């Protein structure tokens, strides 16, 4: 059974940084593409980063390109998202997931990111 547990969210001022973490278990993490997906009140659900199984390829949409960095530690079954220069429109619940459009079974419980002055 896929189990994903996100952490690291919180309140940050515009321009600030946060690092999200995701602990994965119950599936062959090191052989899976992994995604960070967010759900916000205005933008709905969108993927913001994904990486290939080895972690040497990463992909971002233009809205976060240059500000977000996804990484993984396959030895520890961990996925990370470093978010810099956060904007108010980045506020959302962030999920790690095994697909770009996950069902509830394919993502964690989420971690809230609030960007406000």
Written overview of the protein:
This protein is mostly beta strands and 117 residues long. Helices cover 0% and strands 48% of the residues. The protein contains no helices and 10 strands. The chain has strands spanning 3-7, 10-12, 18-25, 34-40, 44-51, 58-59, 68-73, 78-83, 92-97, 111-115. The strands form 2 sheets. Strands 2-10-9-4-5-6 form a 6-stranded mixed sheet, with no helix packed on it. The protein has a 4-stranded antiparallel sheet with strand order 1-3-8-7, with no helix packed on it. A hairpin with a 3-residue loop joins strand 4 and strand 5 (44-51). The chain is globular, with a radius of gyration of 13 Å. The mean pLDDT is 96.
What would a concise description of this structure say?
The protein is 0% helix and 48% strand.
Describe the secondary-structure layout:
Layout: E1 3-7, E2 10-12, E3 18-25, E4 34-40, E5 44-51, E6 58-59, E7 68-73, E8 78-83, E9 92-97, E10 111-115
Parallel strand pairs: 2-10
Antiparallel strand pairs: 1-3, 3-8, 4-5, 4-9, 5-6, 7-8, 9-10
């Amino acid at each position: 059974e896929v189990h994903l547990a996100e952490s690291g969210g919180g309140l940050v001022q515009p321009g600030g940084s946060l690092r999200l973490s995701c602990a994965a278990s119950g599936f062959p993490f090191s052989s899976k593409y992994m995604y960070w997906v967010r759900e916000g009140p205005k933008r709905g659900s969108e993927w913001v980063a994904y990486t290939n199984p080895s972690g040497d390829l990463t992909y971002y949409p233009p809205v976060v390109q240059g500000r977000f960095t996804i990484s993984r530690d396959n030895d520890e079954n961990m996925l990370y998202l470093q978010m810099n220069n956060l904007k108010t429109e980045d506020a959302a619940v962030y999920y790690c997931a095994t697909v770009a459009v996950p069902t509830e079974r394919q993502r964690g419980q989420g971690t809230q990111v609030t960007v406000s002055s």
